[in-house]
From TrEMBL:
Residues 124-329 form the Plant heme peroxidase family profile domain. It holds the Pfam family peroxidase. This is Peroxidase. InterPro entries: Ccp1-like (IPR044831), Haem_peroxidase (IPR002016), Haem_peroxidase_sf (IPR010255). It is an enzyme of class 1 (oxidoreductase). It comes from Lentithecium fluviatile CBS 122367.
């Protein structure tokens, strides 16, 4: 049986690769989710793929298959949806439901444990669940399904009602109808979901007849259990299957047998064609993850951005000028404007804060780490170009344009972010080098201390404009793996120091809990967020430097 791994998928054709990210303007509120989705390996990797390095991967835990667990978690989350009422769906309410008998096993909390490194105020648990399904389909060989985001996490458990093996066909049919799936789609969704994974004896000994730890009974024979294909259909039709929900010794628990045969095998015979199977799975799995409460409006599908900048540093230095550094991400490869990363170079041009054009070019270099390239699901590939320069604080910066040159043809394409350039505000600067975080032991826990410095242009300092830190504080929830976020607001204090038209403000030694490591913050001037979604991770690795 052919295996499907990340390296092989890097060469797969993808219909979505040819789509243009029309209408994208940077920055976008879903930029962080796009990073988690697109940046799987190489330079600047996010590594969401680490939980599904192969379709059968399970962190060496006997019987575990993360791809199957991720899909199961998503389905159990939407299983109590009422589409007619507009309630439930993919809303992460299952976080509060893991002790229910209808949600047996550790799959759900294992899934949320992997999410802990990616969950943030910009990446809801429910959006990460959608990505988990999208990623699992990619790694296991299923057709591409789009990722839409914007889901809002539930704050409490939803109603009960996940389908269970002992229930009869009318009950299952009614439950799937409530979720928005008719009889044919119910058959398809169960077949698609059960092409991967297994039944764990520790959770369902009444089915497997073996409750030993690590014992599993796969839905398909052999290697097919780790490939998204229609073997589960063929084995059922041939009456030669390892699926104990079809051929178990207790017919009351043979729920797949009842569902698959609900229309006298008409749908299962159609699904025996693999192209038809993949197409139908693509449709019903997409609908599954896009089932959301009526108040949620999902984004358009997330498409890899052709050009995307990242600003690493915009801050005063001791000389009174502004350090400005970052990098540009350029998509290259098959079905893109740029087939060859080695044939590219890039530079920036910029305007001052008043919109005046500067003739100065900000040059870039390609990083040496990982050859300055990265890759994602479905063959997305990127090359990066870094810049590091200093700007005059008297004139500052208002926006920049990106220029990408194809060296072999000596042609340059200018990118202006929809016409107005890539915006930069320099009225408030985050002084990252003068900021730091530390943790000290206090008995069985650790106390955290956070110091943040900001430089505010003197023209923005009038007393009626308060400068505040909005800190995304972690709040633990009993019985739930992932914390909630609560905004903690702290006022900056003037230091009395000025430097080249800027006044320095500081929050010194703010208490933060140990569980807030890795969290984010924003800086708000008056009612305007001027510095947005900054991580404190780097601040734990440095001491606060002096300036001026």
């Amino acid at each position: 049986m052919k295996s499907h791994n990340f390296a092989a998928l890097a060469t797969m054709p993808s219909a979505l690769l040819s789509m243009v990210a029309a209408g994208y303007v940077w920055p976008d509120k879903y930029d962080y989710m796009e990073d988690i989705y697109m940046l799987q390996s190489g330079f600047n990797r996010m590594g969401f793929i680490d939980g599904i390095l192969s379709c059968g991967f399970g962190q060496r835990v006997p019987g575990r298959q993360n791809s199957a667990e991720w899909i199961r978690t998503a389905y159990h989350d939407i299983a109590t949806a009422d589409v007619e009422a507009g309630t439930g769906g993919l809303d992460a309410s299952i976080q509060f439901e893991t002790e229910r008998g209808e949600n047996k096993g550790s799959a759900f909390n294992n899934t949320f444990g992997h999410f802990s490194g990616y969950y943030s105020p910009r990446s809801s648990v429910s959006d990460l669940l959608a990505l988990a399904v999208v990623g699992s389909m990619a790694i296991c060989g299923g057709y591409e399904i789009p990722l839409r985001v914007g889901r809002i996490d539930a704050t409490e458990a939803g109603p009960m009602g996940v389908p269970e093996p002992q229930q009869d066909l009318p009950t299952h049919t009614a439950k799937f109808a409530k979720q928005g799936f008719n009889q044919t789609e119910m058959i398809e969704l169960v077949a698609c979901g059960h092409t991967l994974g297994s039944i764990h004896g520790a959770n369902f000994p009444e089915i497997t007849k073996d409750n030993s730890t690590g014992q599993v009974s796969h839905f398909e024979y052999g290697e097919s259990a780790t490939v998204f294909d229609n073997t589960v259909v063929h084995e059922y039709l041939a009456s030669n299957t390892s699926n104990l929900l079809v051929a178990g010794s207790n017919d009351t628990l043979n729920s797949d047998k009842r569902i698959f045969g609900a229309d006298k095998n008409v749908t299962m015979n159609l699904l025996s064609d693999n192209t038809y199977f993949q197409t139908r799975c693509q449709d019903v799995m997409t609908r599954m993850i896009d089932t959301v409460p009526k108040e949620v409006v999902l984004s358009d599908p997330i498409i890899a951005r052709d050009i995307k900048p990242y600003i690493n540093l915009l801050a005063l230095n001791s000389n009174g000028s502004i350090d400005f550094s970052g990098y540009i991400r350029v998509r290259y490869g098959t079905n893109t404007k740029y087939p060859n990363a080695d044939d590219l170079s890039a530079y920036l041009t910029y305007t001052d804060r008043n919109g005046n054009n500067f003739t100065k070019i900000i040059s870039t270099t390609r990083p040496t780490w990982q050859a300055g390239t990265g890759a994602g699901f479905r063959g997305y590939t990127f090359v990066y170009f870094e810049w590091d320069t200093q700007l005059a604080s008297e004139s500052g910066i208002g926006s920049f344009h990106i220029h990408v040159t194809t060296k072999s043809t000596n042609t340059t394409q200018e990118y202006n972010n929809g016409g107005n350039g890539y915006p930069v505000q320099d009225k408030v600067l985050y002084q990252m080098k003068q900021s730091c975080a530390s943790y000290t032991p206090n008995g069985a826990v650790y106390d955290g201390s956070l110091t943040i410095m900001a430089a505010v242009r003197s023209t923005e300092v009038p007393g009626h404009k308060q400068l505040n830190l909005h800190f995304d504080k972690h709040v633990s929830r009993q019985g739930v793996v992932l914390d909630a976020f609560e905004t903690q607001i702290e006022a900056f204090n003037a230091t009395g120091k000025t430097l080249t038209g800027y006044e320095l403000f500081k929050i010194d030694g703010m208490y933060i809990g140990a569980d807030s490591s890795g969290t984010t913050f924003s800086v708000v001037l008056g009612d305007t967020t001027v510095i947005d979604f900054k991580s404190i991770n780097a601040l734990t690795q440095q001491e606060c430097a002096t300036i001026g």
